[in-house]
Amino acid sequence: MGMSGAAPASPSAADGNVAIEVRNLVAGYGETVILQDVSFTVAEGERFVILGGSGCGKSTLLRHLIGLQPPLAGTIRLRGVDITRADDTARRAVLRNIGVLFQGGALFSSMTVAENIALPLENATDLSRSQIEDLVRIKLSLVGLAGFENHYPGELSGGMRKRAGLARALALNPAILFFDEPSAGLDPLTSAELDELIIALNQTLHTTMVIVTHELASIFAIAQRVIMLDKGSRTIIASGDPHWLRDHHKNPWVQNFFNRRPSSAS
């Protein structure tokens, strides 16, 4: 895959159970191929980051991983289930075990924070109203929003909306949590606080976390391992520990990305 100077394999990727396995993925829209020959694994409990420049296919890959789009070729296994070939029942069961924090939080503006978080619990469980209310309070407490049950999304700051969206993504205790540009639109301090929350939740809940981002500060803070997608070759050009890639990878584009240098500087 053109990964000259590849980093040593991460121990967390080599040991333990595999949460996500992608093999020979080809992704695109109609005749347009965005990604080709993409293969990687994510270990259970790992904080794994997908990164790259604009237009490299990060969002396309995410849409495939969460089952919103079928691949043109290849396989995607979530906790052992190939979601590209599973029947509807098996596919729904595995996709119910994932959570997604979309860029804007994707909260319903006409519903309170509590009602937003309760929605997946009402749709996917037989829990009583009081049990759901208890769980909503627990999830809000987990993300530092205790007491905000009756607020509407429009009454919250951008960082608080992200936290509320994260509480909803955690509602069903997912084994895998996906983040789409979690720091987008946040100031540096709020972004750093969200990074700390993501790490704390990962360590407390042992949830596998896959984060799509291009924010260097977040990448270095959160990632145990990364893959870097490349728009030109339409595949992975680097993988491993981001600090190692920054200091040792031979590809000038990879070096420039991690050191925030314009291409003309290579």
Can you describe this structure in just a few lines?
This protein has about 270 residues and is α/β, with parallel strands linked by helices.
Distance between the termini: 21 Å
**Widest beta sheet: strand line-up:** 6-7-8-3-9-10
Could you estimate the helical fraction of the residues in percent? 25-40%
CATH superfamily of one domain: P-loop containing nucleotide triphosphate hydrolases
**Largest sheet data:** 6 strands, mixed
Shape annotation? globular
Low-confidence stretches: 1-14
Task: Output the radius of gyration.
Answer: 19 Å
- The assigned CATH architecture of one domain is 3-Layer(aba) Sandwich
CATH first level of one domain: Alpha Beta
Q: SSE order, as H and E? A: HEEEHEEHEHHHEHEHEEHH
* Tally of helical runs: 10
Strand residue percentage: 15-25%
Number of strands: 10
Could you state the oligomeric state of the chains shown?
A: single chain
Average pLDDT, rounded to a whole number, is 90
- Label the structural class: alpha/beta
Per-chain topology:
Blueprint: H1 11-14, E1 18-29, E2 32-43, E3 47-52, H2 58-65, E4 73-78, E5 81-82, H3 88-95, E6 98-101, H4 113-124, H5 129-142, H6 158-169, E7 176-180, H7 188-205, E8 208-212, H8 216-222, E9 225-230, E10 235-240, H9 242-248, H10 252-258
Parallel strand pairs: 3-8, 3-9, 6-7, 7-8
Antiparallel strand pairs: 1-2, 1-4, 4-5, 9-10
Helix pairs in contact: 4-5, 4-6, 5-6, 7-8, 9-10
